[in-house]
Amino acid sequence: MRIRTAVLISGRGSNLKSLITACSAEVFPAEIVLVISNVPNAPGLNHARAAGIPQQVIAHTEFQRREDFDSALDAVLQEEKIGLICLAGFMRILGDGFVARWQGRLINIHPSLLPSFRGTRVHERAVESGVRISGCTVHYVTPEMDSGPAIVQAAVPVGPDDTTEALAARVLEAEHKIYPQALKMVADRSVRLENGKTVFGAYRCAGEFLINPAEG
Ligand code: GRF
Question: In angstroms, what is the C-alpha Rg of the chain?
Answer without folding.
Answer: 17
